[in-house]
Amino acid sequence: MTVMYEAGTETGIIRMDAGKADIAQLKKLVRCGSRARNEQFDDDAHLDRIIPKPWGYEYRAYVDDFFDLWSLHIDTPHSTSIHAHPRKLTYLLCLGGKGVTTGLDREEIRIKAGSILRIARGTFHGTRNMGDDALELIEVEVPRNKFDLMRLQDDYNRAGTAYESESVEQPRNTMQAVPFLPNTRMRRHSPDRRFRFELRTGMDIFYRRRAEDVFHIPLCVSGVVKSDVEILTGLPGDTRRPQTDKQYLSISRTR
Protein backbone atom coordinates (compact mmCIF):
# COMPACT_ATOMS: atom_id res chain seq x y z
CA MET A 1 0.00 0.00 0.00
CA THR A 2 1.35 3.42 -0.96
CA VAL A 3 0.85 6.23 1.54
CA MET A 4 0.83 9.83 0.33
CA TYR A 5 1.19 12.78 2.66
CA GLU A 6 -0.24 16.24 2.23
CA ALA A 7 1.49 18.63 4.58
CA GLY A 8 -0.61 21.46 5.98
CA THR A 9 2.17 23.96 5.26
CA GLU A 10 2.16 23.38 1.51
CA THR A 11 -0.10 25.04 -1.05
CA GLY A 12 0.04 22.16 -3.53
CA ILE A 13 -3.15 20.23 -4.32
CA ILE A 14 -3.19 16.43 -4.32
CA ARG A 15 -5.29 14.98 -7.15
CA MET A 16 -7.39 11.84 -7.34
CA ASP A 17 -8.41 10.89 -10.89
CA ALA A 18 -10.76 8.23 -12.21
CA GLY A 19 -9.17 5.14 -13.70
CA LYS A 20 -10.37 1.93 -15.32
CA ALA A 21 -11.38 0.44 -11.96
CA ASP A 22 -13.60 3.44 -11.17
CA ILE A 23 -15.36 3.24 -14.53
CA ALA A 24 -15.85 -0.52 -14.17
CA GLN A 25 -17.44 -0.11 -10.75
CA LEU A 26 -19.71 2.68 -11.99
CA LYS A 27 -20.93 0.41 -14.79
CA LYS A 28 -21.55 -2.41 -12.32
CA LEU A 29 -23.58 -0.15 -9.99
CA VAL A 30 -25.72 1.05 -12.91
CA ARG A 31 -26.38 -2.53 -14.04
CA CYS A 32 -27.47 -3.37 -10.47
CA GLY A 33 -30.02 -0.55 -10.49
CA SER A 34 -28.19 2.32 -8.75
CA ARG A 35 -28.81 5.77 -10.16
CA ALA A 36 -27.09 9.14 -9.97
CA ARG A 37 -30.09 11.40 -9.46
CA ASN A 38 -30.65 15.10 -10.13
CA GLU A 39 -31.29 17.80 -7.57
CA GLN A 40 -34.46 19.84 -8.09
CA PHE A 41 -33.17 23.29 -7.20
CA ASP A 42 -36.48 24.75 -6.01
CA ASP A 43 -38.02 21.63 -4.45
CA ASP A 44 -35.37 19.92 -2.31
CA ALA A 45 -35.65 22.31 0.64
CA HIS A 46 -34.31 19.80 3.16
CA LEU A 47 -30.84 20.30 1.68
CA ASP A 48 -30.72 23.73 3.34
CA ARG A 49 -31.04 22.06 6.76
CA ILE A 50 -28.51 20.02 8.72
CA ILE A 51 -28.25 16.42 7.43
CA PRO A 52 -27.60 13.79 10.14
CA LYS A 53 -25.17 11.04 9.10
CA PRO A 54 -24.18 7.79 10.81
CA TRP A 55 -20.65 9.21 10.96
CA GLY A 56 -21.63 12.68 12.19
CA TYR A 57 -23.43 15.36 10.20
CA GLU A 58 -23.07 17.72 7.25
CA TYR A 59 -24.64 20.99 6.24
CA ARG A 60 -24.69 23.32 3.29
CA ALA A 61 -22.56 26.43 3.85
CA TYR A 62 -23.05 28.16 0.48
CA VAL A 63 -24.98 27.50 -2.71
CA ASP A 64 -25.71 29.23 -6.01
CA ASP A 65 -26.64 27.95 -9.48
CA PHE A 66 -23.19 26.42 -10.01
CA PHE A 67 -21.32 26.10 -6.69
CA ASP A 68 -22.35 23.95 -3.72
CA LEU A 69 -20.20 24.07 -0.57
CA TRP A 70 -20.82 21.60 2.26
CA SER A 71 -19.23 21.27 5.67
CA LEU A 72 -18.63 17.71 6.94
CA HIS A 73 -18.24 16.87 10.64
CA ILE A 74 -16.88 13.30 10.88
CA ASP A 75 -16.69 11.85 14.38
CA THR A 76 -13.82 9.59 15.40
CA PRO A 77 -13.25 6.80 14.35
CA HIS A 78 -15.99 6.91 11.70
CA SER A 79 -15.79 7.04 7.90
CA THR A 80 -17.86 8.19 4.95
CA SER A 81 -18.90 5.62 2.35
CA ILE A 82 -16.70 4.75 -0.63
CA HIS A 83 -18.63 6.69 -3.26
CA ALA A 84 -18.31 8.58 -6.53
CA HIS A 85 -19.87 11.64 -8.15
CA PRO A 86 -20.09 10.79 -11.89
CA ARG A 87 -20.95 14.33 -13.03
CA LYS A 88 -19.22 16.76 -10.68
CA LEU A 89 -15.76 17.80 -9.57
CA THR A 90 -15.09 17.81 -5.82
CA TYR A 91 -12.49 19.49 -3.64
CA LEU A 92 -12.00 18.41 -0.02
CA LEU A 93 -10.55 21.14 2.19
CA CYS A 94 -9.50 20.23 5.73
CA LEU A 95 -10.37 22.77 8.41
CA GLY A 96 -9.20 20.67 11.35
CA GLY A 97 -8.53 17.17 12.61
CA LYS A 98 -6.68 14.30 10.94
CA GLY A 99 -7.95 11.79 8.41
CA VAL A 100 -7.21 9.50 5.50
CA THR A 101 -8.92 9.53 2.09
CA THR A 102 -8.77 6.27 0.13
CA GLY A 103 -9.63 5.37 -3.48
CA LEU A 104 -10.12 2.04 -5.25
CA ASP A 105 -6.35 1.64 -5.70
CA ARG A 106 -6.14 1.72 -1.87
CA GLU A 107 -3.60 4.53 -1.83
CA GLU A 108 -4.02 6.49 1.39
CA ILE A 109 -3.90 10.26 1.28
CA ARG A 110 -3.39 11.72 4.73
CA ILE A 111 -5.15 15.01 5.34
CA LYS A 112 -4.88 17.58 8.10
CA ALA A 113 -5.66 21.27 8.59
CA GLY A 114 -4.80 23.18 5.40
CA SER A 115 -4.84 20.15 3.07
CA ILE A 116 -6.57 20.40 -0.31
CA LEU A 117 -7.60 17.29 -2.24
CA ARG A 118 -9.00 17.51 -5.79
CA ILE A 119 -11.25 14.56 -6.71
CA ALA A 120 -12.14 14.24 -10.39
CA ARG A 121 -15.65 13.26 -11.50
CA GLY A 122 -16.31 9.53 -11.36
CA THR A 123 -13.50 8.85 -8.86
CA PHE A 124 -14.46 6.62 -5.94
CA HIS A 125 -13.26 7.89 -2.56
CA GLY A 126 -13.98 7.68 1.14
CA THR A 127 -12.60 9.56 4.14
CA ARG A 128 -11.99 8.21 7.65
CA ASN A 129 -11.28 10.18 10.83
CA MET A 130 -7.90 9.05 12.16
CA GLY A 131 -7.53 11.55 15.00
CA ASP A 132 -8.85 12.04 18.52
CA ASP A 133 -11.08 14.99 17.60
CA ALA A 134 -13.76 15.51 14.96
CA LEU A 135 -12.53 15.77 11.37
CA GLU A 136 -13.85 19.02 9.87
CA LEU A 137 -13.95 19.30 6.07
CA ILE A 138 -15.33 21.64 3.44
CA GLU A 139 -16.53 19.93 0.27
CA VAL A 140 -16.58 22.18 -2.81
CA GLU A 141 -18.84 20.65 -5.47
CA VAL A 142 -19.11 21.94 -9.07
CA PRO A 143 -21.45 21.91 -10.82
CA ARG A 144 -24.13 21.85 -8.16
CA ASN A 145 -26.03 18.55 -7.85
CA LYS A 146 -26.16 17.01 -4.36
CA PHE A 147 -27.88 13.85 -5.61
CA ASP A 148 -25.04 13.03 -8.03
CA LEU A 149 -23.93 10.19 -5.76
CA MET A 150 -23.26 6.46 -6.15
CA ARG A 151 -22.24 4.50 -3.03
CA LEU A 152 -20.08 1.40 -3.54
CA GLN A 153 -19.12 0.38 0.02
CA ASP A 154 -20.28 1.57 3.40
CA ASP A 155 -19.83 0.73 7.10
CA TYR A 156 -23.51 1.55 7.72
CA ASN A 157 -25.28 -0.58 5.07
CA ARG A 158 -25.94 2.34 2.69
CA ALA A 159 -24.19 0.86 -0.39
CA GLY A 160 -26.33 1.46 -3.49
CA THR A 161 -28.67 3.88 -1.71
CA ALA A 162 -29.48 7.49 -2.65
CA TYR A 163 -28.64 10.63 -0.69
CA GLU A 164 -30.39 11.11 2.66
CA SER A 165 -33.87 12.64 2.85
CA GLU A 166 -33.90 13.34 6.61
CA SER A 167 -32.83 16.69 8.02
CA VAL A 168 -33.00 18.82 11.16
CA GLU A 169 -33.09 22.57 11.66
CA GLN A 170 -30.85 24.61 13.91
CA PRO A 171 -32.40 27.91 15.06
CA ARG A 172 -30.38 31.07 14.45
CA ASN A 173 -28.15 29.35 11.90
CA THR A 174 -30.33 29.00 8.82
CA MET A 175 -29.42 29.58 5.18
CA GLN A 176 -30.02 33.20 4.19
CA ALA A 177 -30.50 34.72 0.74
CA VAL A 178 -27.71 36.95 -0.59
CA PRO A 179 -29.49 40.05 -1.98
CA PHE A 180 -26.87 41.04 -4.56
CA LEU A 181 -26.31 37.52 -5.99
CA PRO A 182 -29.23 35.79 -7.75
CA ASN A 183 -30.26 32.31 -6.51
CA THR A 184 -27.60 32.39 -3.80
CA ARG A 185 -27.91 31.35 -0.13
CA MET A 186 -25.34 30.91 2.64
CA ARG A 187 -24.79 30.47 6.37
CA ARG A 188 -22.83 32.96 8.41
CA HIS A 189 -21.10 30.42 10.67
CA SER A 190 -20.80 26.73 11.53
CA PRO A 191 -23.27 25.21 14.04
CA ASP A 192 -20.60 25.23 16.77
CA ARG A 193 -19.56 28.77 15.73
CA ARG A 194 -15.92 27.74 15.34
CA PHE A 195 -15.84 28.88 11.70
CA ARG A 196 -17.23 31.92 9.89
CA PHE A 197 -18.34 32.08 6.23
CA GLU A 198 -18.35 35.41 4.42
CA LEU A 199 -18.29 36.80 0.89
CA ARG A 200 -15.26 38.96 0.12
CA THR A 201 -13.83 40.50 -3.01
CA GLY A 202 -10.36 39.59 -4.17
CA MET A 203 -9.40 43.23 -3.62
CA ASP A 204 -10.45 43.03 0.03
CA ILE A 205 -8.52 39.78 0.59
CA PHE A 206 -5.42 41.26 -1.08
CA TYR A 207 -5.33 44.35 1.12
CA ARG A 208 -6.72 42.77 4.30
CA ARG A 209 -5.06 39.40 4.95
CA ARG A 210 -6.09 38.04 8.35
CA ALA A 211 -4.41 35.53 10.64
CA GLU A 212 -7.71 33.70 11.18
CA ASP A 213 -8.31 33.08 7.45
CA VAL A 214 -8.27 29.39 6.44
CA PHE A 215 -9.46 29.20 2.80
CA HIS A 216 -10.62 31.55 0.02
CA ILE A 217 -12.76 29.87 -2.67
CA PRO A 218 -13.33 31.80 -5.94
CA LEU A 219 -16.98 31.72 -7.02
CA CYS A 220 -16.44 32.15 -10.76
CA VAL A 221 -18.15 30.38 -13.66
CA SER A 222 -14.78 29.80 -15.32
CA GLY A 223 -13.92 27.37 -12.52
CA VAL A 224 -17.03 25.33 -13.35
CA VAL A 225 -16.43 25.37 -17.11
CA LYS A 226 -12.73 24.48 -16.83
CA SER A 227 -13.20 22.06 -13.89
CA ASP A 228 -10.40 23.85 -12.06
CA VAL A 229 -10.94 26.03 -8.99
CA GLU A 230 -7.89 27.90 -7.64
CA ILE A 231 -8.49 27.75 -3.90
CA LEU A 232 -6.24 29.98 -1.79
CA THR A 233 -5.22 29.21 1.78
CA GLY A 234 -4.44 31.41 4.74
CA LEU A 235 -1.18 29.55 5.34
CA PRO A 236 2.05 31.59 5.55
CA GLY A 237 3.58 29.66 2.64
CA ASP A 238 0.76 30.53 0.23
CA THR A 239 2.00 33.63 -1.58
CA ARG A 240 -0.52 33.47 -4.45
CA ARG A 241 -2.51 36.63 -5.00
CA PRO A 242 -6.31 36.67 -5.18
CA GLN A 243 -7.84 37.91 -8.42
CA THR A 244 -9.10 41.34 -7.49
CA ASP A 245 -12.10 41.25 -9.86
CA LYS A 246 -13.53 38.01 -8.42
CA GLN A 247 -15.86 37.17 -5.54
CA TYR A 248 -14.62 34.67 -2.94
CA LEU A 249 -16.20 32.70 -0.14
CA SER A 250 -13.78 33.12 2.77
CA ILE A 251 -13.68 30.64 5.64
CA SER A 252 -12.06 31.80 8.86
CA ARG A 253 -11.69 30.63 12.45
CA THR A 254 -13.60 32.46 15.15
CA ARG A 255 -11.52 31.11 18.02
Describe the protein:
The protein is mainly beta. The protein folds into 2 domains: 3-153, Jelly Rolls (Sandwich); 176-253. It is built from 3 helices and 19 strands. The strands form 4 sheets. Strands 2, 3, 4, 5, 7, 10, 12, 14 and 15 form a 9-stranded mixed sheet that branches. The chain has a 4-stranded mixed sheet with strand order 1-9-8-11, with no helix packed on it. The termini are far apart.
List keywords for this structure.
255 residues, mainly beta, Jelly Rolls, nine-stranded mixed β-sheet, four-stranded mixed β-sheet, 9% helix
Produce a short descriptive summary.
This protein has helices at 20-31, 202-207, 221-226; strands spanning 3-5, 14-16, 51-53, 56-63, 68-74, 82-84, 89-96, 98-102, 108-112, 116-119, 126-129, 135-142, 150-153, 176-177, 185-186, 195-201, 213-218, 232-233, 247-253. With 255 residues, it is mainly beta.
Output the structural class: mainly beta
* CATH T-level topology of the largest domain: Jelly Rolls
Could you tell me how far the N terminus lies from the C terminus, measured between alpha carbons in angstroms? 38 Å
What is the CATH C-level name of the largest domain? Mainly Beta
Q: Strand tally, please?
A: 19
Oligomer: single chain
Mean pLDDT: 92
Q: N-to-C SSE series?
A: EEHEEEEEEEEEEEEEEHEHEE
Envelope shape: globular
How is the biggest beta sheet arranged?
9 strands, mixed
CATH superfamily of the largest domain: Jelly Rolls
